[in-house]
Write a structure and sequence with these properties.
GNAT_dom; alpha+beta; transferase; GNAT family N-acetyltransferase
Length: 168
């Protein structure tokens, strides 16, 4: 099992589409993704990530060997928060519980801290998403609080946890 990050390729559209057609994954992501998620949707996302400002958006496919098993991105904030970035990710359901998420989060944070001026990376998983919370904790993120009634997902008002990793 070798978890790595790499830039997206257009040939990743099919596995990306398969991953995002899973309601269990979509239940833990922000709204805005189409469902069903087509190969054309995946190609559009991949193109957008490849064309993005490389100092603002750091988007990668998560792989196990040659197999795409997830997506991970760090997104720089603006204005007074320009040295802060938000982390987002998901791992394909068949690969849950195998350490891929933790390894990929550690890799992307190391990369961001080594190659950019970003000093704070944060994530806001739903409180109910215990797997994601555990990934962040195992990767060294510190819980900073509960964002009560912070979102509405699938008609439900949701609490979120705020985690951060600070460059020391």
């Amino acid at each position: 099992m070798k978890t790595t990050l790499r830039k997206w390729k257009m040939t990743d559209a099919e596995p990306l589409s398969e991953m995002l057609n899973n309601p269990k994954i979509l239940a833990n992501l922000r709204d805005g993704l189409p469902y069903p998620y087509t190969i054309d949707d995946a190609k559009g996302y991949i193109k957008a990530m490849l064309d993005a400002d490389q100092d603002q958006i750091f988007a990668y496919a998560v792989t196990d060997g040659n197999r795409v098993i997830g997506s991970m991105g760090v997104f720089r904030k603006e204005n007074i928060h320009f040295r802060t970035a938000e982390l987002g990710y998901y791992i394909a359901e068949p690969d849950w519980g195998q350490g891929h998420g933790t390894r990929a989060v550690k890799q992307i944070c190391e990369l961001i801290f080594e190659t950019t001026d970003i000093i704070r990376i944060f994530a806001e998983p739903f409180v109910r998403n215990l797997g994601s919370c555990r990934i962040l904790e195992k990767a060294g993120f510190q819980p900073e609080g509960i964002l009560r009634k912070n979102a509405v997902k699938n008609g439900q008002i949701e609490d979120m946890k705020l985690y951060a990793l600070i460059r020391e």
